[in-house]
Structures are given as C-alpha cells and as structure tokens.
Design goal:
Structural class: alpha/beta
Strand content: 25-35%
Number of strands: 12
CATH architecture of the largest domain: 3-Layer(aba) Sandwich
Low-confidence stretches: none
Strand order of the largest sheet: 3-2-1-4-5-12-11
Distance between the termini: 28 Å
Number of domains: 2
Helix content: 10-25%
CATH class of the largest domain: Alpha Beta
Shape: globular
CATH topology of the largest domain: Rossmann fold
CATH superfamily of the largest domain: Vaccinia Virus protein VP39
C-alpha cells in the first residue's frame, strides 16, 4: 500500500472529489452481498465490524445499519469524507499492513483497498492484520478487484455531478509485465467547477495481482479457513472463518 507521502492524488489533493467519482449509492448491492457472506461465515450473528481500507466510507454507508463499525484508512482526506457521511462510525488513521488495535471484532471486511498490496509480503501482512483483529468464531471477507486468473486489460469511464461541480474520468487498466505481481491503472480526470475552465489531472495507481492459490495459501497460513465465492460482478471473493 502506498505510504502517506506517496498516495495517489485521488486520496490526497483530490480526495474531496471521490464521491463524485465513486458515489456511495452505487455500493448498495455490493455491500449487501458482503454482509450476507460475513453473516453466513460467522458462528454467531456479527455485531462489530472492522473495515480495513475503508476509503470514503461508501460501503460503510450501507453496512452501518447492520453493524457497529470501526473504519480504518491510510488517507486522512478519505476519512474526512467518511466522517461526514458516517458520523456514527469510529474512524482511525491506520495502515492495514501494520495496524494493531489490541482488540478483536466479530468480523473484518477488506474491499478493493487490498489491491494496493503489491507484493506477497504486503498481502501477507494485511491478511495477518485481519486475522489478529478477528475473534474466534468470527469471519473475514476480502473483495479484490481481480486475481491473476481473471485479469484483463480494459478501459472504462464514468463520473457524477453535484452542487456546481462534476467529474468525468477515463480509467485505463494495463499489465505491462505479466511475470510480476503488479499492474497499473491510470486515470485522466476532467474536473469542472462552476464556470471555470475544465481542468485535466492524471493519476497513476499500482495494484497487486496474485494467483487464487497464493491468496488461499496466505489466508490458510494466517490461520483462516478460507473459501472462494464468485460474486454477481464476475469477481472472486475470499470468505474466511476463524476457528
């Protein structure tokens, strides 16, 4: 995961634009899918939920109805957005590779922020953090965008408008070296504010890419009992129980 000083612009200088790039309302189905997986994998109905890499709080805006949530992210700008959206949730600045809160939760959820783990060692650290904070009988769900087996290079676009400003983006996903454990996502953002000229900003993200078997081995090594579920959007989700 990037250090605070090297975060992509989306999580730093452009953090205030995040909900126009990725609207909370768009996460309702995905959050409900994750909630069901967490409930099914838990030995008792989960009440407390730790989300690692919670970003702008999009998933939490739906999950907080069902759980008492603690949200952790490396970006203070994203946490500020989430606090405004989810004031009833606990928010903490932290790195999922090294976070230690000295308490456990009924369940742990890691959405697409897990993609910033670009080496097996970093992924192992994040998995261990989830395990350490998951109570016995609890569950954890990891929702990476892709694994090596289902990666494809592609281009997408989108954006939203709100209160006198708007964003449009082109997103280019590309793997220049299939022999390593990373791929890149480049964004071109077009930002409109009132009557000012549209400005264009480039943003570069480096994501991790691992085989399904690597994921499963790391989860098992940490102490989880993992399984793999295909979600409605064509991704593989890792559902874990802790004995």
């Amino acid at each position: 995961m990037p250090s605070v000083s090297s975060l992509p612009k989306l999580y730093g200088e452009l953090a205030s634009w995040f909900h126009l790039l990725s609207a909370p309302a768009d996460y309702a189905e995905e959050a409900e899918f994750a909630r069901n997986l967490l409930v099914q994998a838990s030995s008792t109905p989960p009440r407390t939920l730790l989300e690692l890499g919670s970003g702008g709080g999009n998933n939490a805006s739906h999950l907080k109805v069902h759980f008492q949530m603690t949200l952790v992210d490396l970006s203070s700008g994203m946490l500020d957005l989430s606090r405004a959206l989810n004031p009833e949730c606990e928010h903490l600045v932290g790195d999922m590779r090294s976070l230690r809160l000295d308490r456990v939760f009924d369940a742990v959820f890691v959405h697409d922020a897990i993609m910033y783990m670009t080496t097996e060692d970093e992924l192992r650290q994040a998995v261990e953090t989830a395990f350490i904070h998951c109570k016995a009988g609890g569950a954890a769900v990891f929702m990476p965008d892709v694994v090596r087996e289902n990666f494809v290079s592609l281009t997408t676009h989108g954006g939203h408008d709100d209160e006198g400003r708007g964003i449009r983006y082109i997103e280019w996903t590309f793997d220049s070296d299939p022999s390593d454990t990373t791929y890149t996502v480049d964004f071109a953002y077009l930002l409109r504010e009132g009557n000012r000229p549209v400005r264009v900003v480039h943003d570069h993200h480096v994501f991790g890419l691992f085989l399904k078997e690597v994921w499963l081995q790391l989860l098992q090594d940490a102490g989880f009992t993992p399984s793999v579920v295909a979600d409605p959007w064509g991704r593989l989700v890792f559902v874990c129980s802790r004995e």
